[in-house]
Design goal:
The chain is of the alpha/beta class. It has one domain: Rossmann fold. The protein is 34% helix and 27% strand. The protein has six helices and seven strands, in the order ααββαββαβααββ. Strands 3-2-1-4-5-7-6 form a seven-stranded mixed sheet.
Length: 205
């Protein structure tokens, strides 16, 4: 890893993804999680403050970004040891099938190299009728904004740790064996190329 990826990027992502608009979406979705939870792309642990730990049995956080996970580990101790970590990609996990009540993905499907494989893993690991809870940014509805998202994504990936501006999150989830129980699509404050949000709950079918 470069010095940028090791020392600068984790703090930059923690700051950007911790802005108020993103945190508002976390506050709407993360409290719905319950039971045994897998968080894909746990990053620096920005979701921790929004879990209702009275409903949480355990959280296993998955992320290959060691420097970001180090920040998450520093935040985890105050949550009564209910959080553990796997420093690995989400596309292939050595975890038992049908063993989780919820999978939480927050601003990570944009970055995971193969999001369909990660969603296939989420589907495999969830119990029947288990919940996928998600907060993501992605492809905007307007063709003009989409053009800029497609143009900027190659450079954006280099400075944003692999982040794609132009992934259709709704399509990715619906094509992976999930049906939407709730889905919100709207802009939050900020540049339109990076702020169209997909947030909600999908059920394993």
């Amino acid at each position: 890893m470069s010095l940028y990826e090791t020392y600068v990027l984790p703090k930059l992502l923690d700051f950007c993804c911790g802005l108020q608009g993103f945190q508002n979406k976390r506050s709407q979705i993360v409290p719905l999680a319950y039971g045994k939870i897998l968080e894909m792309g746990i990053g620096s642990g920005l979701n921790f403050d929004y879990y209702n730990f009275e409903k949480v049995e355990e959280i296993i956080g998955v992320d290959p970004a060691i420097s970001s996970v180090a920040i998450a580990k520093s935040r985890a101790p105050k949550y009564n040891s209910k959080i553990s970590f796997i420093e690995s990609s989400a596309e292939a996990l050595d975890l038992e099938s049908l063993s989780f009540d919820c999978v939480v993905i927050g601003y990570s499907l944009c970055t995971i190299p193969n999001p369909l494989k990660a969603l296939a893993e989420a589907h495999r690991l969830l119990k029947p009728q288990g919940s996928l809870l998600f907060m993501e940014h992605g492809l905007a509805p307007e063709p003009g904004i989409q053009k800029w998202q497609n143009r900027l994504t190659p450079a954006w990936k280099k400075i944003g740790g692999g982040c794609h501006l132009n992934r259709n999150i709704e399509e990715l989830i619906s094509s992976s064996g999930f049906s939407f129980e709730q889905l919100s699509k709207k802009y939050i404050k900020g540049p339109k190329v990076a702020t169209f949000q997909y947030c909600g709950k999908a059920i394993k079918t």
